[in-house]
Write a structure and sequence with these properties.
Elements (H helix, E strand, L loop, with lengths): L1 H11 L19 H19 L8 H36 L2 H6 L3 H17 L3 H21 L11
Length: 157
């Protein structure tokens, strides 16, 4: 009964859902999360390309292969989407029109990086994953230059 009372109250007084990062005044941005996700895309792509299917019809071997393959694909796609999300936050929330004077290719760089995220999701293509990481590095350099800094590009892998 108590549940139905609360349910009725919540139906009449719905709250809007809130999302964070960003559009808030915190001003905390960093391309590091995009780098980590893009590195994971490249790592999973390399692992997928290195996999060899079983040479026998052993159901157990095929189950293990299919399980590992699907897990790698899942992680690759999730991380490509995460890279895109993080890049879009930087593009739409951090970079402002005044940055276009400093970086005339800003929009093209982000647009191509977002396209590489999509290509990395739908393909198992090491060159696309490498290009994605290079694009994230370029964005990293633009970001820190816009802040008057020259933070080093350091990868985890």
């Amino acid at each position: 009964m108590l549940r139905s009372v609360f349910s009725a109250i919540f139906k009449r007084l719905p709250a809007d859902s809130a999302q964070a990062h960003c559009d808030g005044p915190c001003g905390v941005y960093d391309p590091a999360s995009a780098r980590i996700a893009a590195e994971a895309v490249l790592s999973m792509t390399k692992k997928l390309l290195a996999m060899a299917p079983p040479t026998t019809n052993d159901p157990s071997a095929w189950a293990e292969y299919n399980n590992t393959f699907s897990r790698y694909v899942s992680v690759k796609e999730e991380q490509a989407q995460e890279t895109k999300k993080e890049l879009l936050i930087l593009w739409t929330d951090y970079f402002k029109p005044e940055h276009l004077a400093q970086f005339p290719d800003l929009h093209d760089t982000f647009w191509k990086a977002a396209k590489l995220c999509s290509a990395s999701k739908v393909n198992i293509d090491q060159s696309k994953a490498e290009d994605l990481l290079k694009s994230v590095e370029k964005i990293h350099n633009m970001f820190w230059k816009s802040k008057g800094r020259a933070d080093a590009w350091v990868t985890a892998s």
